[in-house]
Amino acid sequence: MATTSVPPEAPLPKMVVFDLDYTLWDLWIDTHVSPPISKSSNVNQVIPRRGSPFGFFRDVPSILQRLHKQGVKIATASRTTAPDAAYDALKFLRLKNIDGGEPVRALDLFDYKEIYPGSKIRHFKELHKKTGIAYEEMLFFDDESRNKEVESLGVTFVLVSVSGVDESTLAKGLSLWRKRRGL
User: Would you say the pTM of this structure is higher than 0.85?
Assistant: First the structure.
């Protein structure tokens, strides 16, 4: 898919938050694979002890790198019961560098990581506490409609389809965030 170009003058949220399972990758880390998770010689792929090798959905590596380059804080909010496996997957995923050169470690693109069981409200309260970023300056992508509850805090929520985050979903989210802010 072609890269979505956001004009430099277009306002961006201060933080974009992503769920992991079925939002950035095509599985539940706590049920579809077994640790340990190890590095693959292929970019955008890790290898679990049990289960198929996996990585991010196709557009995710470039989306994360572009947001990072634009100065947007990137976070994850995941309620998985396997936080160590999720951290290992992020640590060992190497992404094709959009500027060329050495691959980029996925974990290094995330400024904040809230990965533990519990309500997404709790995750966002922790993100706000750690960063001081207003909820209205946060955009959240998740595949579960129940997590729309974060809108009660002022966060803009985008429901992700079964195909995960892609360029179209990102553009939709940014447009919704701008509209909610009157921009």
Answer: yes
